[in-house]
Amino acid sequence: MKNLADTSLNQSNRRISANGFSLLELLITLSIIAILFGMMVPTFKGVRGTAEKLMCANNMRLIYYGLHGYANDNNGRLPYSAHAEQNRLQETMALTTDPGEDQKWDGLGLLWYPEGGGYLDNCNCLFCPSHHGHHFLADAQEKLNSPSNFPNTNLGDEKLYCNYQYSGDQFKNGKNSNKHERLFFNDAHHQNSVILTDGMRTASDFNHINGGNALSTVGSIEWFAPTKSMGYNLSNLPVGQTELPLKEQADKFNGIWISIQDAK
To answer: Residue 249: its pLDDT value, please?
Structure first.
């Protein structure tokens, strides 16, 4: 004799298996996945930020090798910066001087152009992977990849920038001093002076969110997190791409350089 109850139960089980999940079960599953994904997103961002910091530090390492090679060929001198010489410290992110008939390579740009020795193997190291403002690699790559034609071509009002701020071949001696001292790699007096940081020409040129990398003359690369005084200086970076009046930019950027030096 057949057991009708058992047969009904078996058919019910087969129907559930054939139909799959119910709508409620599907919603619960999707909700759990969404919650887990939301918990993991900050971790993904943190990993990406750490990777970009390391890539930025590696860029600085490559630039340091270029600076060292240049110094070996020039009696220990770092590449000349016309902008630093004129106290235009806001503009030391530039690879060239101002547009015009006598436009020249300047600062870190002297490491790149072949006629000067070609101390960098790749111009990509001049651009930070965390950069989010103006002056991306794509904006300058065509000119940088054909440097023998530059600056002998008509560039109009263009000026090339990288993503790193160069101290120039000078070091400001004291916060309230107008005196600059020449920097040499073999000078023990300035052996641990900061010579390169993340770009800070304007607020939008600052590469990272919560600090930046700083390269010293001994080749050490350290991460600086803004202190109270440094944070004040960095929060007052110029907005937009306008160059500040000479005295204002000299005072502002000298203060930033010194605060980064003191934070090391």
So the answer is: 86
